[in-house]
Amino acid sequence: MEPSISRSTPVAASAEDVWSLVSDLPRMGEFSPENIGGYWVDCSGPAVGAKFRGTNRNGAKQWSTKATVVECVPGRLLTFDVHSPIGVRVSRWSYVIEPTDTGCVLTENWYRVGNWFVRRFLGPKVTGRQDRPGFNVESIEHTLAAVKAYAER
Q: Which stretches of the chain score pLDDT less than 70?
């Protein structure tokens, strides 16, 4: 499956240091313009099958999601599927880290997997965002810049 949106940035930090930031999903609220954090459910961190409960905010609208890690290669890859509180799969997110001579390249991918009901009705009603792909381009670029700035300081 090809990502709907993919953005990358070089980071002057080790792949392991960048991994520690993007795989700490409860901390993602420090980097994301929409996610405000969350917690691991019945586990202490990322592994295939691990579950995470996240909270997001857009102005006065706030909602929670359930995520399940579907790929996990420490230091290199973290992919998780996101479901609405009622169990509807709404997206897939992935962080890919490729080591380089000067640090690494961090790529964030978003896969649009929701059906027409999610895209046209549920998503906009719950999140207040009519143009999810348009927002996610900005959101991914913001998140990558924030992770890069933190990792490089």
A: none
- Please report where in the chains the tokens 């991914």 appear, as a residue: 140
The neighbouring-strand residues paired with 94 are: 79, 109
23: its two tokens: 């795989």
Residue-level pLDDT at 25? 93
In the block, which residue shows the tokens 């409860």?
26
* Order of strands, sheet of 77-83, starting from the edge strand that comes earlier in the sequence: 5-11, 103-112, 89-100, 77-83, 61-73, 51-58, 35-41
Longest Cα–Cα distance of the chain, Å, equals 46
What is the reported pLDDT for 121? 86
In this prediction, residue 18 carries a pLDDT of 98
Contact between residue 34 and residue 142 where contact means Cβ atoms under 8 Å apart: no
